[in-house]
Structures are given as C-alpha cells and as structure tokens.
Design brief:
This protein is of the alpha/beta class. It has two domains: about 10-190 and about 280-365 and about 375-435, Aldolase class I (TIM Barrel, Alpha-Beta Barrel); about 200-230 and about 240-280, no CATH class. It has 18 helices and twelve strands. The protein is globular, with a radius of gyration of 22 Å.
Length: about 425
C-alpha cells in the first residue's frame, strides 16, 4: 500500500497496523529500532556483504561523528498546536513529493538480496519515497525503470574518466525517465576501508555492482577494444589457479550478461572488470567541468558530497539545481566532519546567495526523529541509506518497504508530537543543543 501523506497520518496508520497485527500474534517482519535492525542484518548477511555495506573509512571515526552529531541536538515539543493531520509533502525540482525522504543511492544491492535494485526501488515507491538509482547498481537502470512502471526516480552518476561513457549513462537515464541527475563528487578514489581490505574484498573485481556499465554500448565498445588489443599476445607463464581465483572467475561469469557457461570460456567478463577499474573515477575534475556536465543533460543537476559552505556557494554560482550534504555515510574520509555538523553552514551559505535551490542531506540517518532534526536544521529532504539495505537483506523488497514505512511513520508522529502540522513548521527553533 502506498500512503498519500496529504490525506492521512502515516504514523498512526503504520502504528495501528502493527498493533492490530500484534493482537493476532504477528510481529513486524523487521525490527523497528535502527540498532536492532543493523544487528539482525549482520546475522543474515555474509561477512563480506555486511562489511561492504556497514563499513566506513579508516577507524570509522566519521561514521561515529555522524551519529554523535545527531546526539548533540534535542527536540523541544510544543503543545496545543492542533495537529490532527500532518502534511509531509515537499516541492523538489519541480514536483511535489509525498515525503521529504529519498532513497540514497547505494551500490551492489545484490550483496544484500537477489531483489537488489529492483526491490529497493519498488520498496521506495510503496513507501512514497523517490529512489535514487546508483551507477554501481546490480541491475541496469532500464530494468529498474520498467519495474517501477513509470514511477518517479532520480539517477546518481559517478563521472567516469571516459566522457563518452559518462554522457552515455546520462543519456540512458534521461531516456528511461529519470527526473534528476545526482552527481556524486566525493569518490575520486575509493576511501581506505579496512573491513573490505582485511577481507581482500572489492565487489567490482568480481563483476558485482557494474550492471550499468556492462549494459552500456559505450562501455561495451571499450571492452571489445581491450579484448581485441590483447588477442594473439603471449601472456607468458601463468600461475596455477587457486580455488579463490576460480571462485572469482565464476563470480565474474555469473554477474556478466549472458549464460554463465559461455562467459566462463570468454575473455570478456574479465576484460569488463579491468575496463571498469580503469574508467570508474575521474580525479581530474574541477569546478571548470561543471558547464560540461550541463551540456550532457537537460535534467536538473544536483551535486552530492558537499560539506564546506564555500563549495555550496560555488555550486549555486555554477547554476546547479540542488546541493546534497553528505560524507558518503563515513565511507570515504576518516575523521571527516560529521555531515549533520556541516548542514547548517551549507544551508546558510546557499540562502546567503539568495537562491532557493534545495539542500538535501544524508549520512547517519537511522530514524524518523533523525530526519526531523535534519529537516529542522534546514534540509529540504533527507536521504535514507543503510537502513533500507538492512531491510532488503532481512526480507527482500517487503523488508525494505517496511523499514521505510517505519521511518516515515516515526517522522510523522514526531512532527505531530512536536506541534508541527507541516514541514514549514519544522524549523531550528524546534531544537536545542544537548549538554
């Protein structure tokens, strides 16, 4: 069921359904508490999969800073405000959204569940939240768009070192109905992630999470050129294959389009992985490249990964349609500023330019109350990340949808109990800094 937040209380609807089911002995499929949700997902997922999703950079100080930043704020409820119903709708990039909540782009969702990107996107649709499809998806964007049946989505781009490939990905996103382009800027290199490093696990090296590439005509041409260039060359003495190498080859073959049996005998899956690793990122990008991005698309452009107020000012001056405050959930730079700590400064910088472009936010959000705090500090909408992946791991698409409904329900009830009938009432004066 999709909830129309202009007509009903999401919180009371979801809460009442849980209690009614409980009277018949049925409990929620997934835990309603964020901490218990993560613990349950860790038990359900493989060590590699959980490490990839839950892990952060270095000693994970940034991940802790994200949570500590929320702990520094307290909500101050107001009473007798008359909130029998709440309107959680928000205008973003020319369209009204039922909720001020988005599904942040997360790659390699097949590591959580076979429903992968299709299940996550449909879960977002069910919960009334717009999904942002990842470039590092396990399913091609066309497949996800078809599964959504015309529902709204945004597309997240990692700007490749091959401009033709980047332009092709953007063109495909436009063709299959994306409403906006979100360009992630904080991943010029992969961060130092000990959980993955200690396991020697990079999913992309196994062909996981590169479905947007292997389904792309420009990328396929790059792969064909690599295969042709290596044909007939003498590779020299080859070491005896280890069991781990055989498993990696099988993983590449399973994850590549086409029959696994044919792929095992083909050089293409391995060449695809090698090509991806060559072209994934573009560390040479500067502000001077933003106009080139504009030339690629007519879609609204949002820059993601901003933490410094001066970067926000430059983004607005460059004519982008939105900025997204994020530290990649702590996955890129250890000991980075907490994203929530950076949010007020970015909001103030954007508003100081006289611009009304939306300021989006993610990193560290685990509940509806967290979302309330971010909205009160000036976020136009809040991205949900790891929690929906944990729900996906526990129960596929229904589990992800249930997690998202729980977060939306808590946000709605928090607004009602804090005396905020609309998002316009969720302002900084509803907060106090905690001792």
């Amino acid at each position: 069921m999709r909830y129309n937040t202009r007509m009903a209380s999401v919180g009371r609807t979801v809460q009442s359904a849980i209690y009614r089911a409980g009277s018949f002995g049925r409990r929620p499929t997934v835990p309603t508490d964020g901490g218990q949700l993560e613990t349950a997902a860790e038990r359900a997922m493989s060590r590699r999969a959980f490490g990839y999703v839950a892990g952060s950079a270095g000693g994970e100080a940034t991940a802790r800073a994200n949570r500590a930043a929320f702990d520094r704020w307290s909500i101050v409820p107001r009473v007798l405000a008359g909130t029998p119903e709440r309107d959680l709708g928000v205008e973003l990039l020319g369209r009204r959204h039922d909720l001020p909540l988005l599904l942040s782009p997360i790659g390699v969702l097949s590591s959580a569940h076979e429903d992968a990107d299709v299940g996550a996107a449909r879960a977002g649709r069910t919960a009334g939240m717009t999904p942002v499809l990842s470039t590092q998806a396990s399913r091609p964007m066309e497949e996800v768009a078809a599964a959504l049946g015309g529902s709204d989505f945004w597309y997240q781009l990692y700007w490749s070192s091959d401009d033709d490939l980047a332009a092709s990905l953007v063109s495909r996103a436009e063709a299959c109905g994306a409403e906006a382009l979100v360009v992630t800027l904080d991943t010029a290199y992969l961060g130092w992630r000990p959980r993955d490093l200690d396991l020697g696990h990079l999913p992309f090296a196994r062909g996981e999470g590169i479905a947007q590439y292997t389904s792309d005509p420009v990328f396929r041409r790059l792969v064909e050129a690599r295969v042709a260039a290596s044909a007939g060359t003498d590779p020299g003495p080859q070491p005896r294959p280890t069991p781990a190498a055989v498993r990696t080859l099988l993983a590449m073959s399973r994850n590549h389009p086409g029959p696994t049996r044919d792929n095992v005998r083909s050089p293409v899956p391995r060449a695809a992985v090698e090509t991806f690793l060559d072209v994934f990122s573009n560390p040479s990008l500067t502000w001077d490249d933003v106009p080139r991005l504009r030339e690629m698309t007519s879609l609204p452009v949002v820059l993601k990964g901003l933490l410094h107020p001066d970067d926000a000012t430059r983004a607005v001056e460059a004519g982008v349609d939105g900025v997204w405050v994020s530290n990649h959930g702590g996955r890129q730079v250890d000991r980075s500023v907490g994203a929530l700590d950076a949010l007020p400064g970015v909001v103030d910088a954007v508003r100081a330019t006289g611009s009304a472009v939306p300021v989006l936010f993610d990193s560290g959000v685990r509940s509806g109350a967290d979302a309330f705090v971010a909205l009160a500090l000036g976020a136009s909408a809040v991205g949900i990340g790891r929690p929906y992946v944990y729900g996906l791991a526990l129960a596929g698409e229904p589990g992800a949808a249930e997690v998202l409904r729980h977060i939306a329900a808590e946000l709605d009830l928090t607004m009602g109990l804090a005396g905020c009938p609309t998002l316009a009432d969720v302002t900084r004066d509803r907060l106090r800094t905690s001792p």
